[in-house]
């Protein structure tokens, strides 16, 4: 009887050992499965970007805008053919999720420009993009009209084709002063743009040929031009570029129209010097006085 009890004890002890061994084994397998999940196939991307955790606070909104996501998904390249003896002018834009951009120009010479960018509105139709390079001498500030059409970007009245990143591009280093210039301090750095969009502008005398009697510049990158002599009006897009405090250009995308009293015109882009003198706006040689905006 004593021997039988000993045997039962040995059987119970052996069974307990096996149960504990199985429990430890299962635990190890579970841990392994958690540590090494099944392999997932993820499409490779060649878009150079910065992780959200490293974005300056003022630019984190960039990744939440569909138009911004579209802009940073590819490079954008445009070419202008010149005389047969001259190399074509090729401009390439690269926009990055850290709020910085790179613009490369190549022709008979090449140049590169970097700075900060920001799109203030989520609109996927007419929009504008602010560009700032405060470290340039003199500093450069642009507000360019922006929209997408037929798979192309129309940036500052010029068309650019979508071009994939190669994967070798490196985002420019974020410069906080540039980033602040296009975001939290935009009103100060882009005061000229703010001023000309705050009013409509009526010519104080007969305008120069080709100039309208009244212009209305809208903050979505569109404008309206009205001609008194032909009682005609057209709309287009506009952009400005300022180099320092004394040199500002405006680009007007002029649609085909019959408003000019000299005759009909095909679509073209016009580049004009523009400045403020006191309360008046000088568009090339025509003086315009502010008037309440026709809302």
Short structural description:
This protein is an alpha+beta fold.
Describe the structure.
It is a single chain. The protein has 5 helices and 16 strands. The protein is of the alpha+beta class. It folds into 2 domains: 52-189, Lipocalin; 194-291, Beta Barrel (Lipocalin), CATH 2.40.128. It has a 16-stranded antiparallel beta sheet that branches. Strand 7 and strand 8 form a beta hairpin.
| Portion in beta strands | 35-45%
CATH structural fold name of the largest domain:
Lipocalin
The main β sheet shows up as: 16 strands, antiparallel
Query: What low-confidence regions span 5 or more consecutive residues with pLDDT below 50?
Result: 1-25, 27-61
* CATH C-level category of the largest domain: Mainly Beta
How many helices? The count is 5
SSE sequence, one letter per element? HHEEEEEEEEHHHEEEEEEEE
Oligomer state of the chains in this structure: single chain
Kindly state the mean pLDDT as a whole number?
Answer: 82
Task: Give the tally of β-strands.
Answer: 16
How would you describe the shape? Answer: globular
Helix-strand category: alpha+beta
Distance from N terminus to C terminus (CA atoms, Å) equals 108 Å
**Tally of individual domains:** 2
What proportion of the residues is helical, as a percent range? 10-25%
CATH architecture of the largest domain: Beta Barrel
- Report the radius of gyration as a whole number of Å: 31 Å
């Amino acid at each position: 009887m004593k021997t039988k009890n000993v045997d039962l004890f040995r059987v119970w002890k052996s069974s307990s050992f096996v149960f504990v061994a199985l429990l430890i084994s299962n635990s190890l397998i579970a841990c392994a499965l958690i540590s090494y999940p099944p392999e997932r196939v993820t499409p490779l991307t060649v878009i150079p970007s910065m992780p959200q955790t490293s974005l300056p606070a003022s630019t984190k909104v960039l990744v939440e805008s569909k138009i911004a996501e579209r802009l940073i998904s590819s490079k954008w390249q445009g070419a202008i053919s010149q005389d047969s003896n001259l190399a074509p002018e090729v401009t390439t834009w690269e926009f990055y999720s850290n709020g910085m951009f790179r613009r490369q120009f190549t022709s008979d010479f090449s140049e590169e420009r970097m700075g900060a960018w920001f799109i203030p509105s989520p609109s996927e139709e007419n929009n504008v993009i602010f560009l700032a390079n405060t470290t340039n001498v003199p500093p450069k500030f642009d507000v360019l009209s922006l929209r997408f059409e037929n798979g192309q970007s129309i940036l500052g009245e010029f068309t650019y084709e979508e071009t994939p990143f190669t994967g070798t591009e490196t985002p420019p280093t974020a410069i906080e002063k540039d980033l602040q210039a296009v975001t939290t301090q935009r009103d100060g750095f882009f005061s000229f743009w703010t001023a000309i969009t705050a009013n409509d502008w009526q010519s104080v005398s007969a305008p120069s040929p080709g100039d309208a009697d009244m212009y209305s510049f809208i903050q979505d990158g569109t404008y309206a031009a009205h001609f008194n002599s032909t009682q005609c009006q057209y709309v287009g897009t506009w952009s400005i570029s300022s180099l320092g405090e004394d040199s500002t250009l405006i680009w007007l995308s002029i649609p085909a129209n019959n408003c000019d009293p000299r005759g009909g015109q095909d679509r073209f882009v016009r580049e004009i010097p523009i400045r403020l003198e006191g309360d008046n706006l000088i568009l090339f040689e025509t003086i315009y006085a502010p008037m309440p905006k026709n809302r």
